[in-house]
Amino acid sequence: GSLERRRCLYLRTGRACCQMVEVLLAVLLLVCSSVSGGSAGGYTGVPALGGIYYYQFGGAYSGFSGADGERAQQLDQHFYLLKLPIARAAMAVGGCLLVFPCVLILVGVLRVPWHFPAWLLIECTLYVVIAVGTVPALYYFFHSLLSVYNSSVCKEREQLYQSKGYQGFWCSLHGAEVAAGLLGCMAAMAYLLSAGLAVRDYRTAHEQKQKPLQL
């Protein structure tokens, strides 16, 4: 009926569009964070694969044997464990950032801001807090990653793989991690825009609520 049409109209508003963009950014952030965490290692020993050495990006190869193979496996596992807390924290943040706009979309569809305009001020405050909090979160993310890449484990791992002629094990940020940082910056800008739209919609709703009283 007319109520359902009014609810669906919210999805066409500027605030809802921003919230849907925030959902997309959060999904992409989750994907990039999971890629950053990677697998348990690029090297798998003979007992696990019946004499096949496996590179995590695909393809069987030989080149490691004996002590070198065992050391490569140890370094892979240690490197993975060093990055795991960072990846989990980034994924947790991405998950929270995914749930938040989904809840606000539901609140908007249910027309809560229309019945309780002060909600929009609460929404604005939450957006500003999240946008500001994104800055130290990104700093912690990159600072922690660089600490891992500058560790002796990463350096030894890089040298060991390079000595066998294999590339892709450099101690530097890779594309998914840089993308995660860019997505975080884009999300912060989207939150600030949503905060401004929430203030605008609050003024509009407040004025419309006052019209019957003035008549």
Write the layout of secondary structure elements.
Elements: H1 2-9, H2 14-37, H3 46-49, E1 53-54, E2 60-61, H4 66-109, H5 112-115, H6 118-149, H7 152-163, H8 175-214
Antiparallel strand pairs: 1-2
Helix pairs in contact: 2-4, 2-8, 4-6, 4-7, 6-8
- Helix-and-strand structural type: mainly alpha
Determine the strand fraction and express it as a percent band.
under 5%
Q: What order do the SSEs take from the amino end to the carboxyl end, as H and E? A: HHHEEHHHHH
Main sheet characteristics: 2 strands, antiparallel
| Rg from Cα | 24 Å
Our count of helices gives: 8
> In which order are the strands of the major sheet placed?
1-2
Integer average pLDDT: 82
For the secondary structure, the number of strands is: 2
What is the straight-line distance between the termini? 28 Å
- Tertiary shape: elongated
Uncertain stretches: 43-61
Q: Roughly how much helix do the residues carry, as a percent range? A: over 70%
Number of structurally distinct domains: 1
Q: How would you explain this protein's 3D organization?
A:
The chain is an all-alpha fold and 215 residues long. The chain has one domain (2-43, 62-210). The chain is built from eight helices and two strands, in the order H-H-H-E-E-H-H-H-H-H. It has helices at 2-9, 14-37, 46-49, 66-109, 112-115, 118-149, 152-163, 175-214, and strands at residues 53-54, 60-61. The chain has a two-stranded antiparallel ribbon. Helix 4 crosses helix 7. The longest helix is centred in the middle third of the chain and has 44 residues, at 66-109. The radius of gyration is 24 Å and the shape is elongated. Mean pLDDT is 82; it is low at 43-61.
